Amino acid sequence: MTAPAVPRSPVTTLVVASRYVPVYLAIGVLVVFASIWAPATLSGAGLNAIAPFGTFLAITALGQMLVVMTGGIDLSTPGTFTLAALLMVGVGQVSDARIPLALATIAGVAGLIGLVNGLLIGGLKLNPLIVTLAVGQIVNGVVSRYYTTIAIQSPVPRGLSEWTSTRFLGITRIFWVGVALTLVLMLTFRYTSLGRRFQAVGANPVAAGVVGLRVSFYQTAAYVAAALLYAVAGVLFASFLRMPGVTIGAPYLLGPIAAVVIGGASLTGGLASSLSTWSAAFFLAGLNQAMRVMGLPTALQFVVFGLVIVSGMLVSGDRITKAVERIIRTRRTEVSTSNTDGQPTEESYAP
């Protein structure tokens, strides 16, 4: 069931939209930089290399975005990501007939991880940083134990890897799965009452509770949905590698958080953009590919990546929004005090 969207004034639209501008400026700067110093990044081969890794990061970042929209954070991402990949190998047992069973098992396990996080955070109101870090450690322990039960160098079922590697419009289906998930979230937040209620709970949980929204339910659901998205990314990554290892989820601890921040999400909850988060993930993947093309040492790549994340914090959506609000407020004050006779009007004393 959908609910009509509340119309926004042009000023409100400008303020909200301004928080998402930096990521697109960053992409523009990256394109110019790469075209001059690392042109191979923008070649067909370079873009084909960016597409899958950008998608893995984008899907995990979308999950992290849902959590951040509730004012939380999730550090259990790497464990859930890796466990999903290994379950596809272990339960799949190199048999196409077992793919549905493997996917159902992965969804159940990922949902359980998200439910534990959600109940402890949304239900018992525990600190999300500590809870998800602890749950992540437990999942990592399960991953290490489960990995010893899988035959070394066992691949995922061939049917899965063939399906994901099939190209549509010259790009693998992995990319299009990421696009589809992004569109689903965009439409949900834009056109459904469920999406708008979720945003309202994140923006102001106290007010949402007063009007009758089940705050704990939405907070718990955010962690469950996030874990399912991590699992989707893990399965896709497993199909891409075909023989996943026990450490494949390690890069997805800070990367998704960085994409959410650079994508302009409000760290206090509520506002976020699925499209901007998706774009930020591909910006980071493109930056990583450009550094590889330039032949930068791994240590220097970490330094550059860290500097980009810090820069994203400095120009985060919250800071941009506050700056635009100050400019608009100052402009309104100047206009209200500059009437025809030079006398201040009643509006100039309004807050």
Q: Encode the helix/strand succession as letters.
A: HHHHHHHEEHHHHHHHH
Structural class: mainly alpha
CATH topology: ABC transporter involved in vitamin B12 uptake, BtuC
Q: Assess the beta-strand content as a share of residues.
A: under 5%
* CATH class categorisation: Mainly Alpha
Rg result: 22 Å
Span from first to last CA? 39 Å
How many separate structural domains? 1
The strand line-up of the biggest sheet is: 1-2
Can you tell me the overall shape? Answer: globular
Walk me through what this model shows.
There is one protein chain. The protein is mainly alpha-helical. It has one domain: Orthogonal Bundle (ABC transporter involved in vitamin B12 uptake, BtuC), CATH 1.10.3470. Helices cover 71% and strands 1% of the residues. The protein has helices at residues 10-18, 21-37, 44-68, 77-92, 99-123, 128-147, 158-165, 173-191, 193-203, 205-210, 215-241, 255-262, 274-293, 298-314, 317-337; strands at residues 167-168, 171-172. The chain has a two-stranded antiparallel ribbon. The longest helix has 27 residues, at 215-241.
